[in-house]
Automatic annotation (TrEMBL):
PROSITE patterns: TAT (PS51318)
Pfam families the record matches: DUF1329 (PF07044)
Superkingdom of origin organism: Bacteria
Protein's name according to its UniProt entry: Uncharacterized protein DUF1329
Organism listed in the record: Panacagrimonas perspica
């Protein structure tokens, strides 16, 4: 008979005790950041009962099983309330995979190397901006707070570099599902581009692009279909000052010109039917200090997609769907037991007309990536949810490379409006129209997507 030394109740008590006492370091048996730095794995930081779904559920659910309405009660505590309801009532399903123990598979390789190399070198300056402690210059790369002690540190790292690459292009397909009949109301396709002029770990010059060192990010989304929205694009230019709103420019093909839009209207869909806002991007779509009262409200294990979701068997990486009234509501998704997540709440400060009173976000303690978000309306009622799946794009002999290493990125996203039942699904695909390809660290991304001239060119080419 196996004697369990550290069972799930021990871990639960420790998480609760540490939160109540204000002890915010991650890990149960030893500090997680130290375990990763020493061995590259998470195994020394957690008991076996937090490293497998079998151990946590005492064998009620095993690796390879599918979680659905028949067994979801065994893992209710591992889900945010929206996914639980979708599993219970709407036919959503989740396939279970082993817990990823190798930390080098949970983020881009160079980002992890920079995180380990620059550990302990970050601080907040007098304005609340993340800077290099040695010289007060902008951050130099990787996660500035790999062993987070506050909710602000977690959100600061997330806001600094959404996709964890110096530059990223995501070709995507988007589907808007009606809450009334479960059918697809709108189909969109487009490209989302991100470019970091600071904290660079791959692109030259490193760690800054000198003439753009005062900027945090350039980000564009351009729609390629349907025909009525073809060429519509938006460009966000973020200052490095974490309290300053981005400049927002848009190109509308009917007017054939770029115009500036109010940048504070970040809680409206960019296209009809969408349940996704600019503010939702990576759960940190607004500058850090336009939100406030960041606070850690809980810790514990969680189920989310960190592996096994990339679909190389489809020539364009498109994922299967299931569930809902018409079988179109949810992505086929694989999830794993995350030994520890950190749950953070925050409130909008600089949005007087925001329809949201607060957001609650789950961060994976292994890599500090966002694995779930729930927002609340002004009455304090659950409003909208955001959950996604990541992967290292390596499956058997199939690989999509990012330089010397397999590409790491998001695979698909599900955004749900709880009050209407509407759902937005996004899938990162390999290529659209031949020239718009998903990938990372291409220096040509800036000129192709991230200037006002680029918006005009994209609009003209779509005419």
């Amino acid at each position: 008979m196996r004697v369990i030394r550290y069972d799930r109740q021990y871990s639960r008590r420790k998480f609760l005790r540490d939160c109540a006492a204000g002890i915010l370091g991650t890990g149960v048996l030893c500090p997680l950041a130290q375990a990763i730095a020493d061995t590259g794995t998470i195994e020394k930081a957690y008991p076996e009962e937090l490293l497998s779904i079998e151990g946590f559920t005492k064998g009620r659910i095993k690796t390879g099983d599918v979680i659905d309405a028949s067994n979801v009660e065994h893992v209710k505590d591992l889900l945010e309330p929206v996914r639980y309801e979708q599993l219970l009532k709407l036919g959503r399903r989740l396939k279970t995979l082993p817990t990823t123990r190798d930390a080098m598979r949970l983020s881009p390789w160079e980002y992890i190397e920079a995180t380990l190399r620059n550990a302990g070198k970050a601080k907040f300056d007098a304005k609340g901006n993340v800077v290099n402690a040695a010289d007060g210059e902008p951050w130099i790369g990787g996660n500035p707070f790999p062993d987070p002690k506050t909710g602000l540190e977690l959100f600061a790292a997330q806001t600094l570099n959404w996709g964890r690459h110096d530059a990223s292009t995501y070709a995507f397909k988007e589907f808007e599902i009606s809450g009334k009949d479960g059918k697809v109301r709108f189909n969109y396709a487009g490209v989302w581009a991100e470019f970091s002029p600071v904290a660079r770990v791959v692109l030259e010059p490193k760690p800054y692009w000198p003439e753009h060192k005062d900027k945090l990010r350039y980000q564009t989304v351009c729609f390629l279909s349907p025909t009525s929205f073809r060429g519509t694009s938006f460009l966000n230019i973020w200052d490095y000052d974490h309290s300053t709103f981005p400049n927002l420019y848009g190109y509308v093909p009917e007017f054939r010109r770029v115009r500036q839009f109010p940048t504070t209207q970040r809680f409206e869909p960019l296209v009809p039917g969408s349940s996704l806002y600019l503010s939702d991007a990576w759960a940190a779509g607004d500058p850090l200090h336009t939100w406030g009262n960041y606070r850690i409200v809980g810790r514990g294990p969680f189920l989310a997609g960190l592996s096994g979701n990339w679909n190389p068997s489809h020539p364009n990486w498109e994922c299967g769907v299931h569930g809902g009234a018409a079988g179109q509501s949810f992505w086929d998704t694989s999830v794993e037991l995350i030994p520890e997540t950190i749950i953070v709440e925050a409130e909008p400060l600089k949005f007087p007309r925001a329809p949201i009173s607060k957001k609650r976000v789950w961060f994976d303690a292994r890599n500090n990536a966002v694995v779930g978000m729930l927002t609340f309306d002004r009455r304090g009622q659950p409003y909208r949810s955001f959950d996604g799946a990541y992967d290292l794009y390596e499956k058997g002999s199939d690989r999509h490379m990012d330089g010397a290493h397999p590409y790491w990125s998001w695979v698909h996203v599900t955004a749900s409006d709880i009050q209407t039942g509407d759902i937005t699904r996004l899938n990162q695909v390999r290529v659209l129209e031949g020239s718009h390809r998903s990938g990372a660290n291409d220096p040509d991304i800036y000129n192709k997507y991230l200037t006002q001239a680029a918006l005009i060119k994209l609009g003209a080419s779509s005419a």
